[in-house]
Amino acid sequence: MTSEAELVSPGIIALTWFDLAVAASLILVAALVSLALKLGITSKIAVAALRTTVQLSLVGLILQWVFALERWYLVLALLSSMIINAGVAGVRRTQRRYGGIWTHGLFSITVCGLITTFVVTELVIGVRPWWEPRYIIPLMGMVLGNALTALSLTLDRVTNDLEVRRAEVDSWLALGATKWEAARPIVADAIRTGMIPIINTMSVAGIVALPGMMTGQILAGQPPMEAVMYQIVVMFMIAGACAMAALLSGLLAFRALTTARHQVASHLLRKIDG
Question: Where is 149: in which H helix or E strand?
Answer without folding.
Answer: helix 133-164
